[in-house]
Every structure is written in structure tokens, then in C-alpha cells.
Specification:
The structure holds 2 protein chains of 2 kinds. Chain A is of the alpha/beta class. Chain A contains 13 helices and 18 strands. In chain A, strands 3, 5, 6, 9, 10, 17 and 18 form a 7-stranded mixed sheet that branches. In chain A, helix 11 links the parallel strand 15 and strand 16. The two termini of chain A are 26 Å apart. The longest helix of chain B has 20 residues. By secondary structure, chain B is of the alpha+beta class. In chain B, helix 1 packs antiparallel against helix 2 and helix 2 runs antiparallel to helix 3. In chain B, 41% of the residues are buried. Classes of the chains: A alpha/beta, B alpha+beta.
């Protein structure tokens, strides 16, 4: 089958690899009909995540049709022929954490638990198409994928809804939604959201769905800010203003946003001497993450407010404004998305016409174009917000 | 196990390199303390505690009589009842399902069992063990008989976790590898970090009990690999048995069990 493989920093390649096989009784094989490139894949593309290996198949946002199920899969929950969206976090459904609905903290799904344990104390769940520290499971930017614990994660999708409307239930829609939910929104609240990529855009819409009065979106690309504006947010282009924090204060009568959401993560861009310092340290491998947005979010947040972090961080950060965090009594909420908590209710929102997630798509291309699309997406060329790959199409780009 | 006992054991481990008898004394003291505490409770669990403690003392005393010993100790939470966990472990033929260095455990009657471990380069070590102590749903201890190629004595204790959160098991194993090249290689394999290996084994046990399978990516599809991957595989501390396909090991064990 065709699969998008990481062959080194900024080196992606579509390779012909053996089809996946069932390795454990609760596995299923899915024939993929739609798959996407995620912002967190770019951290891998840029070679910033340790324990990725040459030849690893990336991709964790995919859907398709079940073509094979293992002997241990509960046939009442999943059978051959089902059309499913597969969540990016892998969860067993049996451990303490799964039973607490903390699906992305599953205790059993990471075969390389010990690697993550060294860095984080305990391991979160395994993920598709990510580093070996997080399981090293072959990903879904391919024609087929092996899905472990197949009767727990995959969500059945009725016929009649196009892939495009539901494929983002695999990650970014629930991730944006949980980010907004973590903002602890109360009526009248103002939410500031850094990053108008796919997760940021879903977070904006989710914040309104959850009752936010006002959302202020921050980015540097006008085409992304335009999409934020379409979603109902007020916008700030941080490259065009002197001081984002002061502006947020001015916009909120010196109270500050009730919640600040970092939908950017470890590869943030910002301005000033701090940017130069953080970027240098990252290149020299002295600091894996560039935490400019997180610092700004903590400083900007109102006293007693909430900082929500769906943006991905990999390791350690310097100059964490701990004094502001402590003295202002801020709550920080984080985590990989507890996918199975959100997929079904969000599918119902889609079915009920409350939201059409396909608004986020900018590029639809055959899988063969994936390597160049990584670069286009990373460099924000061609007004790129979201790339959907067709694993079975041949030839040229399909117009968005 | 009381907090004080735990600290005793931890101390014993950290000192074992420079103070070879530390474990023995610590086990003797801790075991003795446990026995006393257990007896003083005058309850069912107290009796078990006393018995476990007595065994620990015995292990401690035994440990001192050999020239070298390796100690593995670990603990894990299982999302099941102590009875279920006990039930699984008490069928000691199940142990190779999750203990990576074991190839097989075969019951041979009379409370005895024959054990085969795979050492480095697929070399095998054989020994016969007997159940030294067994209390339903609570504790199991086993010890190898004289004339074994390697002495492996262990105890596992099952107790209900606080707040109805399943079971916490504590496992404590003492290995006394033989002299000679196989023994040395085996000691080297275990000696890197016996606790780590035990932790990994228990993690596999947890997955097996909770989900019915052990998570793996062994044998999955991938693109062209580089030399770096081979190096990572060789250095993988979770797979100290080189030259032996670990997935086939588990598969074989599973076949035997079914």
C-alpha cells in the first residue's frame, strides 16, 4: 500500500510498504478513505520530537471502512463493513483512566510506556503516527491502518454524511472543543485564542457554542484571521500591534480575557528578543519548545482566570512566568484530547446542522502530493489551513 | 506492607552495590517487623502479614548464603479484584505470558513446577520450584529447589487498593545466578536494572489482565528503516534478550496457555 513515511527532518516520502496486519486480538484493519495532515505532524516534520524513526508512517486523522477485525473485537460494537472515524488517541477502555473518561491518559495502550515515563513521570496513551515514546503505532496517512482496541475508539458514521464533514472528529474538532470546554466558559465571558489554525478555528466556534460572549483571535496571517472573523471572532494581527497584552487589556476595560487558549504550542512564532533567544535555544537543542504564546497567555489572563492549552508541547520550557501564574490565581487546563468523550456528541452537533467542520479545508490532494503539502502547510503558503489527502486518487491536485 | 517496611526495602536496594549484606539484614528486619505487626493484629490479614513477613525473613537469611544475588521489586495497580489477580497469578503457567525472560513454567505435580528461562543469545536456564506459601486471594511465595541451575525465590502480595480502585500487587524476587558464563550473562541481563525489568513485566501483566492482550507494534508495517533504528532496537532496555524474537515468545506462550 501507499504510505506517507518520515525519512528524516523535512524529508517526507510516499513509499510502497506492506499492508498492515492484525497483531493483537482486539485489532481491526481500516481501509482509509480520507486522511489529513495535522499541525502536530509539523513538529515531527521539523524533527523536533525525539524517538521518531526513519520509515515511520505518520498521520493520526483518518477515517474509512473496516475491512478486517480480530478475534477479540466485540462484533456488536464493530464489524467488517462499518464506516468509522478513528480517534488519534488509542485507549483500551478497561483501565482506571479510561473508566474515568480520561481516555488520552490510558494506562495500557503505549507499548513504550517506559520511554514516556522517563520524561513525564507517567505515560499518556499511545497515539497513531507519532513518536515511539508515544507508542510508535503506524499512522493513517496511508491506504490502510491497523487500529488497536478497535471496539473502543472508532466511531461509526452513518452513510450520507460526506467524509469531509466528519473526518475532523478524529482530532481537531474535539481538540478545539475540549480546549474551549477547558476554558470554563460562563455567560458573558471573553476568550482570547492564540493561533487560528484548524484547532484555533474549531476552538473559536466551540467557545461560542459553549456560551462565550466574545472571542478575540490572535494570529499573523490575514487569511487565517479572516477565517476567525468569519467564525465571529474579533481579530488581532500580532505583527501589526506593539503589545498584544496591552491591547487585550484595552479591549476588556483592563480586566483581561476570562480565559486564554493556546492553540499554537511548541513551535510558536512571536516577536522581540525573547523570540530570538528561544529560537536559538531550540536550534541548539537546549530547549525543545518555544513557549512564547504560553507566556503571553499567562500574562494576559485575568486574575482568577483560566489558561487552556490544547497546543502541543514536547519537553521543557524556559522562563515560565510562574510568578504571574501563582499570584493571579490562574487555573491551567491541558491534555491530549479525551477523544471518546467528545466524538459522539460532536457528531450529533454536525448531524443537527449546528456546525459544518468542512469549513476548515483549504486543500484536497491525492496522497502522492503529501510530501510537498507538508511544506506548504508548514510555511503557510497558498492560504493553507487544512490538507485532506485522498489515499486512492491518482494524479494532480483536486481544487479546493 | 507498611511505609517503614517500604523504606527499608528501598534502602536495601540503593545500597546493594556497595553493601552486599544490606538486603539480607533489611529483609530480616523488615520481615521480622511484618511478622510481629501481623501477629499483633490477631486477624486474618494479620496472619497473612505475619506469614509474608516470615517468608521475607527467610528470603533474607537465604540470600546471605549465596555469593551473589539480584533483587527485583516492583508494584502495580490492576483494575480488578485481588481475587481475580490472585487467580491469574496462582496459575503459574501464566507467568511466561508477561515475564519476558521466562520461556515456560510447567507444573510437575507435588506442588512443584519446572521453569525455563531464556538468557542472552537464547541460552536456557532450567530450575524446579515449589510453592512455599500460598494464601487464597492474598499472597503467593515460591522458591527454587536445591540443584537448580539458578535460584529464583519470589513473593507476590495482593491487596485491595484504596477507594475501590482495584488491586495493588507487590512483587519481590531474589535471583541467585550460577557461576560460569551462562550465569554471568544472565546476571548481566538482569543486573542492568532488575527493578526495571520487573516493572515492565508487571506492566504486561496489567495489560493482559485488564485488556486481554499486550500492546505491541512488533511486526507492524513501516517504510525503509535506517541504521539508527537498528541501534535503537539493540539498546532497547525493554528487550534485553537479543537474538530472540520477543513477539514469537509471547505468541508461543499464548499458544501454550490456550
Amino acid at each position: 500500500m501507499k504510505a506517507v513515511c518520515w525519512m528524516g527532518t523535512e524529508k517526507m516520502s510516499v513509499e510502497n510498504v506492506p499492508d498492515p496486519t492484525i497483531l493483537n486480538p482486539r485489532d481491526a484493519i481500516v481501509r482509509i478513505t480520507s486522511t489529513c495532515i495535522c499541525g502536530s505532524d509539523l513538529h515531527l516534520y521539523d524533527g523536533l520530537m525525539p524517538t521518531l524513526e526513519q520509515g515511520d508512517i505518520l498521520g493520526h486523522e483518518f477515517m474509512g471502512e473496516v475491512v478486517e477485525v480480530g478475534a477479540g473485537v466485540n462484533r456488536e460494537k464493530l464489524k467488517v463493513g462499518d464506516r468509522v472515524v478513528v480517534p488519534f488517541t488509542i485507549a483500551c477502555g478497561n483501565c482506571f483512566f479510561c473508566q474515568q473518561q480520561l481516555w488520552s491518559c490510558c494506562d495500557n495502550s503505549n507499548p513504550n510506556y517506559w520511554m514516556a515515563e522517563k520524561l513525564m513521570g507517567y505515560s499518556p496513551s499511545g497515539l497513531f503516527g507519532y513518536t515511539h515514546m508515544l507508542g510508535g503505532y503506524a499512522g493513517g496517512q496511508a491506504q490502510y491502518a491497523r487500529v488497536p482496541y478497535a471496539d473502543v475508539g472508532p466511531l461509526k458514521i452513518p452513510d450520507g454524511i460526506p467524509d469531509e464533514q466528519v473526518v475532523f472528529l478524529s482530532d481537531i474538532f474535539p481538540t478545539g472543543y475540549m480546549g474551549a470546554e477547558n476554558c470554563n466558559i460562563k455567560p458573558g465571558d471573553t476568550i482570547a485564542i492564540w493561533g487560528c489554525g484548524p484547532v484555533g478555528l474549531f476552538a473559536i466556534r466551540s467557545a461560542f457554542l459553549l456560551g462565550a460572549e466574545r472571542v478575540i483571535a490572535i494570529d499573523r496571517f490575514d487569511y487565517r484571521l479572516k477565517r476567525a472573523e468569519d467564525a465571529g471572532a474579533e481579530i488581532i494581527n500580532y505583527e501589526e500591534v506593539d503589545d498584544v497584552v496591552q491591547l487585550l487589556k484595552d479591549m476588556t476595560g483592563n480586566i483581561g480575557p476570562d480565559a486564554c487558549l493556546d492553540a499554537v504550542g511548541m513551535e510558536a512564532h512571536y516577536t522581540g528578543p525573547m523570540w530570538a533567544l528561544d529560537r536559538t535555544k531550540q536550534v541548539l537543542r537546549m530547549q525543545p519548545d518555544r513557549p512564547g504564546v504560553l507566556r503571553e497567555a499567562i500574562i494576559a489572563c485575568r486574575k482568577g482566570g483560566t489558561v487552556s492549552v490544547p497546543g502541543v508541547y514536547g519537553g521543557f520550557i524556559d522562563k515560565m512566568p510562574m510568578g504571574a501564574y501563582m499570584n493571579k490565581g490562574i487555573t491551567m487546563k491541558t491534555g491530549q484530547t479525551h477523544m471518546m468523550r467528545y466524538m459522539k456528541p460532536l457528531l450529533e452537533l454536525i448531524q443537527g446542522g449546528k456546525i459544518d467542520p468542512s469549513f476548515v479545508v483549504s486543500h484536497r490532494v491525492p496522497i502522492d502530493k503529501a510530501p510537498e503539502m507538508y511544506k506548504v502547510f508548514r510555511d503557510k503558503q497558498d492560504h493553507c489551513t487544512k490538507v485532506v489527502l485522498d489515499p486512492w486518487a491518482n494524479g494532480a491536485s483536486i481544487a479546493a | 506492607m507498611s511505609e517503614a517496611a517500604r523504606i527499608h526495602l528501598e534502602n536495601a536496594e540503593s545500597r546493594q552495590h556497595r553493601l552486599s549484606t544490606a538486603f539480607r539484614w533489611s529483609a530480616l528486619i523488615t520481615g521480622g517487623a511484618l511478622a510481629v505487626t501481623g501477629l499483633s493484629r490477631r486477624s486474618k490479614s494479620g496472619v497473612a502479614l505475619a506469614a509474608g513477613g516470615g517468608l521475607l525473613s527467610w528470603l533474607g537469611a537465604q540470600a546471605g548464603t549465596q555469593q551473589r544475588e539480584l533483587i527485583a521489586r516492583s508494584s502495580i495497580q490492576l483494575n480488578c479484584s485481588p481475587e481475580q489477580a490472585y487467580e491469574f497469578w496462582s496459575q503459574i503457567e501464566n507467568l511466561p505470558l508477561f515475564m519476558r525472560h521466562l520461556e515456560s513454567v510447567v507444573l510437575s505435580g507435588d506442588n512443584q513446577s519446572h521453569w525455563v528461562a531464556i538468557g542472552p543469545l537464547g541460552k536456557r536456564l532450567h530450575w524446579t520450584a515449589e510453592i512455599a506459601f500460598d494464601r487464597q486471594g492474598d499472597v503467593i511465595a515460591w522458591r527454587s529447589l536445591p540443584d537448580s541451575e539458578i535460584y529464583v525465590d519470589g513473593v507476590v502480595k495482593f491487596r485491595k487498593a484504596l477507594g475501590n480502585r482495584g488491586t495493588i500487587i507487590n512483587v519481590f524476587v531474589v535471583y541467585q545466578p550460577p557461576a560460569g558464563s551462562i550465569g554471568n550473562a544472565f546476571a548481566k541481563m538482569l543486573g542492568k536494572d532488575p527493578n526495571f525489568m520487573m516493572r515492565q513485566d508487571l506492566r504486561r501483566l496489567k495489560a493482559l489482565i485488564e485488556t486481554g492482550e499486550i500492546p505491541t507494534i512488533e511486526g507492524q508495517t513501516h517504510g525503509p528503516r535506517s541504521g539508527a533504528t537498528a541501534v535503537a532496537r539493540v539498546l532497547n532496555p525493554d528487550d534485553p534478550i537479543k537474538g530472540q524474537g520477543k513477539i514469537t515468545e509471547i505468541a508461543d506462550a499464548r499458544r501454550r496457555a490456550s
